Every structure is written in structure tokens, then in C-alpha cells.
Amino acid sequence: MERLNLRQPSKYDYSDMADTYEQNINFYCVSEGATEESYLYGVRNNKKELQIQNNVIIQVVEKTEENETYSYPAQLVDACLYNMGCIKEDGTEIPRTEWDDNCKWDGYKREIDKVCVLFDRDFRGLESVLADLIDKCSKYGIEVIMSNPNFELWLLMHFPDIGKYSKKQISENKKNIGYQVDKNASKKKKFLEIEVSKLAGGYTKGSRIKFERFVDGIDLAIEQAGSFEEEPRKIMTEIGTSMGQLIRKMKRTDITI
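Predicted structure:
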């Protein structure tokens, strides 16, 4: 079943800074596309500046137009399980004793490495399967890194005073129909995308970001994320993001396994 295959993305040069820390724990980050991919590459390429002492490995599942619904986060999770050696391409479970033999990731240390799946809460129909999806991830030790309503909330947290936005503004994330959100922005854009674009000097959802516009605000983003929900099960119904937790764990060498 080809949909489970992960693309090995091309490497983007966001920084001249080379990794200097000893690799401790591998974070296998499985995400959905260009925005998250480019952000994670920015984190990886700026490990020294960000004081990240663990290794960041980025894997991407291609998304097509027909995968804009709840089926796509499930596809991401299945991609994790397939590459971890837990299921076959057709989704059939593999006995635990055979997981290591079927693992597709070279150097993957099942006992200590972290597998993280990144997706947005606002996929159409996701609420009908989300609880079961989180349970599935918990069963296999996959960390859910979810943002509600979407990843743009995390990007917005890189800039001062997230508190000036109401929870209603964020949760509704209205589309700029009739220029009701911003008369200078595209009618196709939504509230969070528009606000990130203003503060970052340009931004388009689904495109690669210029990480240098966000790197100085990561510690602020981690702090501001604490004002919202961070646990996946709470993010099912409340606005928030688990991205701050993920970056904090990447910085640590004393992670509880």
C-alpha cells in the first residue's frame, strides 16, 4: 500500500550552523508537508543556537487534495507504524517479536528514540476518529504533536503578545470572505495565516517558511504555548499546540522513556 511510504525530503539550507552536540535521542518527526517540514529543518539546522542536544530526523508524507479530511492524520500514523516495523503495508499488525526485523529506519533505537506525528486539529471530520487515533498512538509509543486549530497558531506564538487575540478569533479562524478579516489580504486566506504573514513579513500556508524569521522567537513561543492547552487529549476540544512540549523535549538529555 504505497500511501504508507515516507518521502525522504530534500534538504534545505536554512543555516550555516553545523551540529556540534553529541547525538543522544533521535526524534523521528513525521509531518504532512512543506510548512512543518521546513520548520523542523530550521530547528535541526540551528541546534547549537537553540541548545538542542538531541538529533532531529524529518520524514514527510505527501498530501494530495483528496487527503484533506480525517483520513490524512490516520495515514500519518500508519506511516509511522509501517516504518517502525509494527504493521505491514496493508495495515496488518506484525508480532512484536518481529518489529526490529521489519523496521525501515536505520539506527532506530526503539527503547529510547521518539517517534512524533504532527498534524492539525482542523482536518474535516477528524473529531469522529481522533480519540481512537490518539489511543492507537499511545499503544505504540507514538507522540501526538497536534495544533488546534492548526500549525499557524504555533507560528503566531513566536511573536509578542499572543494574549491580544481572543480565543474566539483563534478558534473560529475565519476565512477572509468579502475581506471581512483584512481588506489587504487575499480572500483565500484565514485569520491565523493573515496574522502570521503580517508579523513574519510574509507567509503562505502550505509553503516553505523562512526560518530565520522565527528562530529568535522560539523561546517566546514555548512560553506562550503554556498559556493554552498542550496535551493532545485536551487539544481535542480546546485551542492550543503540543509543539512547545516537543521543542522542550528536544533540548533535554534526561527525557523519561
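Summary: The beta strands are 26-31, 55-60, 114-120, 142-148, 240-241.
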